[in-house]
Amino acid sequence: MAEIEDVPKEDTSSVAEALTFENMYFALLGAAEDFRISKNPDIRKSIHCLEAILTLNPPARVEVRTRFQIAQLMWLHTKNIDHARDHLKKAELRRS
Question: What is the pTM of this model?
């Protein structure tokens, strides 16, 4: 029986983390869009999906875009203008 040489294993934890973030990000983004464009739109659930993306500690570019999307939905579909403005301010701070 031939012996198998010890091959050093690569550290794939960072790759796994990136794939996991991407999968969760696109799943939540897709769900948010589905809630928004459905026959009976549920803006509250769409906003919740987008806010869940922020809990994943996304890269700055993703966070800024997500906060802008939340602010836009709140501005157009709710009376909570202050909350929308807060998301825009946080997006601007993160962008700088």
Answer: 0.78
